[in-house]
Specification:
Blueprint (H helix, E strand, L loop, with lengths): L1 H14 L5 H8 L3 H13 L4 E4 L5 E4 L12 H15 L5 H13 L18 H16 L1 E8 L5 E14 L2 E8 L4 E6 L3 E10 L22 E9 L3 H7 L5 E4 L4 E9 L2 H8 L5 E5 L1 H18 L1
Antiparallel strand pairs: 1-2, 3-4, 3-7, 4-5, 5-6, 8-10, 8-11, 9-10
Helix pairs in contact: 1-5, 2-3, 4-5
């Protein structure tokens, strides 16, 4: 809409000294002629837009022009800006960038004392593209198809009603209603291959996102197992980062540490335990210990 474009353009001009007309045209996917017509409209509305000629020319606002802010404090606006900037590191979204421009224009201080970067080292443009596609499908209420890779390597074709994108534990997930399982499921985006949006429409189902429904399976009593683990002092720092001191006891004679924890028993658990190599030993329960023994033997045979 033109009104939205005019407001967003005003915010961009407030935040930046000068902007080329061609850049604005590309940002809003309109012609340069339309940009100049918008500038005339802004001038008629009393916003002091100035055009600068020459090599370093462009479009800007009269020095000192700012929008009045009455609703939020400067600290609150900065907190919102930090949150938006942090989320935008993981995916590209025009609306987020537009809101960020508006918020930034209202703050009196532009120094960034905190920056949270959710993106992986080296970036991941393919993941950002996948997120944008899923966000489009969620907004349009269109189903998506993809091939899902389970932790054990099994591949399954899925058709899902996408409801929500979830950023949890530094990873992105899709929470949606799986038409193959007739139930809600949580899908890790890095395991979703050949994602595409189809023409099938769906009606959003009632879910309480504030209650984090994707956590229900994790804490389902049927899936929980109590583990007694001993580990070497050499990895104490790593264990301290994951567990509380109250969960640990130390045998000062042997230098071993013991921890008793409850965790869901699934493929993730065994991968988690094996990630510590020979620095961790599961004492109980016996069936988990036997499973780890079997997995270790399989690994040994593979590399023998």
């Amino acid at each position: 809409m033109k009104l939205d474009r005019l407001l967003a353009m005003t915010m961009i001009l407030i935040n930046r000294d000068r902007v080329r007309a061609q850049e604005l045209a590309e940002t809003f996917n309109v012609s340069v002629r339309t940009i100049y017509r918008d500038i005339d409209t802004l001038c008629q509305a009393g916003i002091p837009v100035i055009t600068f000629q020459g090599t370093n020319g462009g479009i800007g606002l009269m020095e000192g022009y700012r929008l009045d802010k009455n609703i939020l404090t400067d600290g609150e606006l900065q907190a919102i800006a930090i949150a938006l900037k942090s989320v935008s590191t993981s995916y590209d979204d025009t609306n987020t960038k537009s809101v960020l421009e508006k918020i930034t224009s209202l703050t009196e201080q532009n120094q960034e004392s905190i920056f949270i970067d959710f993106s992986p080292w080296g970036g991941n443009p393919l993941l950002k593209k996948k997120i944008s596609l899923l966000k489009e499908a969620i907004t349009a209420t269109n189903c998506v198809n993809f091939c899902y890779l389970k932790p054990n390597g099994e591949k399954m074709d899925r058709e899902v009603e996408p409801h929500t994108l979830v950023l949890k534990g530094r990873s992105w997930y899709l929470y949606g209603y799986c038409l193959n399982r007739n139930d809600f499921r949580l899908f890790k985006l890095t395991r979703m291959k050949n994602v595409c949006m189809n023409e099938k429409k769906f009606v959003r189902r009632e879910i309480q996102l504030a209650e984090s429904p994707w956590d229900l399976d994790w804490y389902d009593p049927k899936n929980i197992v109590s583990l007694k683990i001993i580990f070497d002092e050499s990895i104490r720092r790593s264990m301290d980062e994951m567990f509380e001191d109250e969960q640990m006891t130390v045998d000062h004679k042997t230098g071993k540490c013991q921890i008793i924890i409850e965790m869901p028993e699934n493929d993730w658990l065994y991968g988690f335990l094996l990630s510590f190599l020979d620095n961790v030993e599961v004492v109980e329960p016996m069936h988990v210990r036997n499973r780890l023994k079997q997995l270790s033997q399989n690994i040994y045979r593979k590399y023998k």
